Amino acid sequence: MKxxxxxxxxxxxxxxxxxxxxxxxxxxxxxxxREVLSCGINFFDHADIYGGGHCEELFGNYLKENPQIRDQMxxxxxxxxxxxxxxxxxxxxxxxxxxxxxRLHTDHLDSxxxxxxxxxxxxxxxxxxxNRLYNEGKVxxxxxxxxxxxxxxxxxxxxxxxxxVDQLQMSIVHTPLIDAGFNVNMHxxxxxxxDAGTLEYLRExxxxxxxxxxxxIGYFEGSFLGSDNYKExxxxxxxxxxxxxxxxxxxxxxxxxxxxxxxxxxxxSTGTDHIRSGAKGADIVLEREEWYRLYxxxxxxxx
Length: 303
Ligand SMILES: NC(=O)c1ccc[n+]([C@@H]2O[C@H](COP(=O)([O-])OP(=O)(O)OC[C@H]3O[C@@H](n4cnc5c(N)ncnc54)[C@H](OP(=O)(O)O)[C@@H]3O)[C@@H](O)[C@H]2O)c1
Description:
Layout: E1 3-6, E2 9-12, E3 14-17, H1 26-38, E4 43-45, H2 54-65, E5 74-79, E6 81-82, E7 85-86, H3 90-104, E8 111-114, H4 123-135, E9 142-145, H5 149-158, E10 163-169, H6 176-182, H7 198-204, E11 208-212, H8 231-243, H9 248-258, E12 263-267, H10 272-279, H11 288-297
Parallel strand pairs: 3-4, 3-12, 4-5, 5-8, 8-9, 9-10, 10-11, 11-12
Antiparallel strand pairs: 1-2, 6-7
Bound molecules: NADP nicotinamide-adenine-dinucleotide phosphate.
């Protein structure tokens, strides 16, 4: 496992995503956490909305029974998504964090992300909320999710605490953040710079890119691993998995790590076999030609 600096933390480049844990029972939860930690993964990604709060509750129940484990992990959660709207108001952020801490049975979050951009955001209000949470020791580090560079810039220009992370969707088959960079000054669709050079901005600012849904097609349409719609990609993954003596999932994560930016990949798997096989991806460095071949195998075209 490799580790990177996030604030004053040394976090594993693979994070364990908590969105799909809702159906675990206590024994499964315990096995899962032990497996994750034994792979060297020390970072857990929650959100107040996962399972309607139940995912944090389950995890918190485990922490309540095993308080000594808390020191071995960094816990992140997110807030700002409500029923039919987004809310970055002072009152909502403060209230949401209180709820998160109660459900998780912990006195602090190592990281808090604002989950999805709120068009009605008042950055000064966010600043007040961040300062209070930080000064009270309830949140140690801050970041955002699903924001483009201009949104991050606006927020950062008004906040005292540094914005250190942007969590964004990316995978070999979901590459809008990368495509526009290959198609500069062209008339084709990939040349449309929808995301305003967000990856380049994160690199320039030395921020962490946290990648969500590293295996999903589209918006939760299932994994591309083994999918008939991605035969060529699966053949290339198979070939490289043989070369690097690992499973295909590890190559899919290695593809994300090869992009030259501080990256954390948030795994969504709840299967201990998949956690173990995937964790190997953190230690594989793909060759340049292999990275491009995977990109093309997913159906992407270079100019
Ligand atoms: N910021 C945001 O807006 C946002 C949005 C969505 C998600 N997230 C975060 O990102 C995390 C990951 O998202 P995700 O769950 O969609 O990610 P994912 O890792 O792309 O998908 C996980 C799913 O793929 C399955 N899978 C199939 N084959 C697999 C293999 N060989 N290895 C591993 N998994 C395999 C898993 O099944 P098994 O469980 O059987 O392994 C699981 O159902 C979430 O848990 C959450 O923390 C953030």
